[in-house]
Amino acid sequence: MRRALIATAVFLVGALGVATVTWVGAAGSTAPPVPGVSVVHEPAVGATDVGPAAPATVSVAGGTLDAVALTGPDGAAVEGAPGDGGASWSTTADLAYDTTYTWSGTARGPDGRAVPVDGAFTTVAPADVVRGVLDIGDGRTVGIAAPIGIQFDAHVEDRAAVERALSVRTSVPVEGSWGWLPDENGGSRVHWRPAEYWPPYTQVTVTADLFGVAYGGGAYGRADVTSTFSIGRAQIVRADVNSHRMLVFRDGEQVADYPASYGLSGDPDRTTRSGIHVVTERFTDKRMVSERYGYDLVEKWAVRISNNGEFIHANPASSAAQGSSNVTHGCVNLSTADARAYYDTALYGDPVEVTGTDVPLAERDGDIWDWTLSYDRWRGLSAL
User: How confident is the model at residue 35 (pLDDT cuts 50, 70, 90)?
Assistant: First the structure.
């Protein structure tokens, strides 16, 4: 009786994207069976709404891959690399949103027979793509009270998903937490604050792997952002309004003692706020205007310490009060020489600890009020 070899090809494509080819001998054959070759796609062939940040992978059991490629609609191949001794291949670059990608290539079993690697899938089409911007750029040196801030250009609904994509690495151990603040400038914002002031001279890397993250409501992250920066020397201003002095400490040593005038205490709108302020900006010349109090002036050597109009700056007009009484509209007034000397040392993120008034710095004062909260309360602002 003449023997015949019957070849049976079975392609099964299901939720796991498995294509299987099995070769078996005819009934009564004494030839040993050839092991099967199984090709698995992740994401599955035909999948839609695929996240573009996770690697796309094809792998083969019982064989190796040969000349695999994943291409977009323009025919351009996505960067990738083999793994598992040639038994798998994965993309090494992000995919694009709202794009169909197609596999091509072959898998080969031990007998050299080829099994096609094919199929396609489509990535998610966002209703909106939201940008996040870090407020401390690469290579900067900042003060010991500087929080890490990310400002989004739209509202973030799924804050927990975003927060899971954020990480902070430091050259020395530093405890800290992310906290979500009220939306500002049309979008959500999140800060990372250490439990206590940063250790001076710490190296910090913040990574926000935001591309492909679902923000909720059909919105997704536009791009990853990262920054590596340094914490500088530990400079702290201690400003007791009742002393009429402003003291500057650097790395634990007092380096300056300036006569000062603070906000007039009889008017709550003019009282300098008590609490930990943070230096955010410096101006050699700053125009200061108040319709209510009737002034329009340009002041020298102005260092912003809050968003409610509080600055440390020169003011020759209040020189008679500096060191003896508080007459300002909330700012810390110094002589021109002293203001210049302080201006030259100030860094973004330096703390200015104001004490002695009955009006506390609060959320209404805007921007950086992170240090007005205890660390336990701050951690309560995390979404995780």
Answer: low
At a CB cut-off of 8 Å and minimum separation 6, what does 4 contact? 26
Is the pLDDT reported for residue 11 higher than 50?
no
SS3 call for 364? helix
Q: Are strands 235-240 and 351-355 parallel, antiparallel or unpaired?
A: parallel
Residue 254 · residue 247 · CB < 8 Å: yes
Distances (CA, A) of 103 to 50, 73, 176: 15, 11, 44
Same fold, 18-122 and 128-232: yes
- Selected catalytic residue, list 41, 191, 313, 329: 313
Confirm whether 331 is a catalytic residue: yes
289-294 own/partner pairs: CB under 8 Å, 24+ apart? 290/329, 293/329
**Alpha carbons 361 and 140: distance in angstroms, whole number:** 27
Residue 198: C-alpha distances to residues 70, 184, 203 (Å): 46, 25, 10
CB-hemisphere CA count at 13 Å for 164? 9
Q: Distance between CA atoms of 289 and 295, rounded to whole angstroms?
A: 6
As its CATH architecture, domain 235-372 has Beta Barrel (2.40)
Question: Under CATH, what is the fold of the domain 18-122?
Answer: Immunoglobulin-like (2.60.40)
Give the least confident one: 61-65, 164-168, 173-177, 290-294. 290-294
Three-class secondary structure of residue 36 per DSSP: strand
Side chain identity, residue 183: D
Fold of 128-232: Immunoglobulin-like (2.60.40)
Tell me which residue of 313, 144, 124, 301 sits closest to 220, measured CA to CA.
Answer: 124
Backbone angles phi and psi of 291, in degrees to 5: -70, -35
Mean pLDDT value of segment 347-368: 93
pLDDT tens column, 133-171:
999 999 999 999 999 999 999 999 999 999 999 999 999
Sorted by where each begins, the domain ranges of the chain are 18-122, 128-232, 235-372
pLDDT at residue 10 is higher than 90: no
Which of 191, 277, 329, 331 is labelled catalytic?
331
In degrees and rounded to multiples of 5, residue 104 shows phi and psi of -150, 160
